[in-house]
Design brief:
single chain; alpha/beta
């Protein structure tokens, strides 16, 4: 098996499940480089709230697909596939092992299954949808989505503003439903790619919730509010941008705007992070042939390393 056709080692899991620590441990045993699979880590200047690897970690192990764009820009699954393919090829060309690490399950899915012919984001249509939602509420927008795309509406919560907005945007831009596009996935050359997928999943959801709470408090203590304040002071960002919709940033932004107090900001950010983890776990359950490791187990990191070493000859292409 050549390196170009070797399976890829993927380390997946919800937020706060210990993916980064496991990847760094694996790097002590294999010549790996990390390819980030995280839609928040692509933004420059957003370090604390994204739990971005620090200077020491990045000096010890090369990380890719981090700090790619300014927070005023947008990033997509299509660009991720292009960037990830380039990084994987470059790492393998230097005789090293790419390991994909992250929690943006849509990106993993795009890499594994290819991309559908989705229309690009249309700011004018999205702005109009947001105006309608401001006037009528997201529950009403959810009902409108159900009229044109009942399959997508059925799997979305009535207040899932981001996904309702995107589904309506796709419909208005193309005249096709999001569900029909997802069913007619176009081949992008990734269909045959096999993955060694390790999933760090907690056996106790409440324990994960406590980890999330502890981590967010640590972010606050590390200066998250000051980080968001610097972004807020730029004047060219707003809360509807994908970057400012990232968990934690949106709630701190509302605090800086005076819409909520500090305690409410903290509560909402923790709740939003828990909801993110719930969505990530739902995605994980649909991932075929994943190797599940209890992220709360005392030997979780050791088990990741053992699986990585056992797969070493395959993922190295030897």
């Amino acid at each position: 098996m050549t390196a170009a056709h070797a399976p890829l080692l993927c380390l997946m899991g919800p937020t706060a499940s210990g993916k980064s620590a496991a990847a760094m441990a694996l790097a002590r045993h294999l010549p790996i480089e990390i390819v980030s699979v995280d839609s928040a880590l692509v933004y420059r200047g957003m370090d604390i709230g994204t739990a971005k690897p620090g200077d020491a970690e990045r000096a010890a192990v090369s990380h890719h697909l981090i700090d790619l764009i300014d927070p005023a820009e947008s990033y997509s699954a299509a660009r991720f596939v292009t960037d990830a393919d380039a990084a994987i090829a470059d790492i393998r060309a230097r005789g090293r092992v790419p390991v994909l690490v992250g929690g943006t399950m849509l990106y993993f899915k795009a890499l594994r299954e290819g991309l559908d012919d989705m229309p690009s984001s249309d700011l004018a249509i999205r702005t109009e949808i947001e105006r309608e939602a401001a006037a009528d509420g997201w529950a009403a927008m959810h009902r409108r989505l159900a009229e044109v795309d009942p399959k997508t509406a059925a799997r979305l919560a009535p207040l899932d503003s981001q996904r309702i907005s995107r589904a309506l945007e796709v419909w208005r831009a193309s005249g096709r439903t999001l569900s029909s596009m997802q069913q007619a996935t176009a081949s992008c050359g990734h269909d045959a790619r096999s993955l060694v997928a390790i999933a760090l999943e907690p056996s106790d959801r409440s324990a994960l919730h406590r980890r999330i709470e502890t981590r967010f408090d640590a972010m606050l203590n590390a200066g998250l509010i000051d980080e968001v304040a610097r972004l807020h002071a730029r004047g060219d960002l707003h809360e509807r941008m994908p970057s400012m919709r990232c968990v934690g940033y949106r709630q701190v932004w509302d605090f800086l705007e005076g819409r909520i107090d500090r305690d409410t900001m903290r509560e909402r950010a923790i709740a939003a992070t828990r909801q993110l983890a719930k969505r990530q776990l739902t995605w994980l359950r649909s991932t075929p042939d994943r190797i599940v490791i209890d992220s709360l187990a005392n030997d979780a990191i050791e088990r990741v390393v053992m699986i990585g070493l056992a797969s070493g000859s395959r993922i190295s292409g030897r």
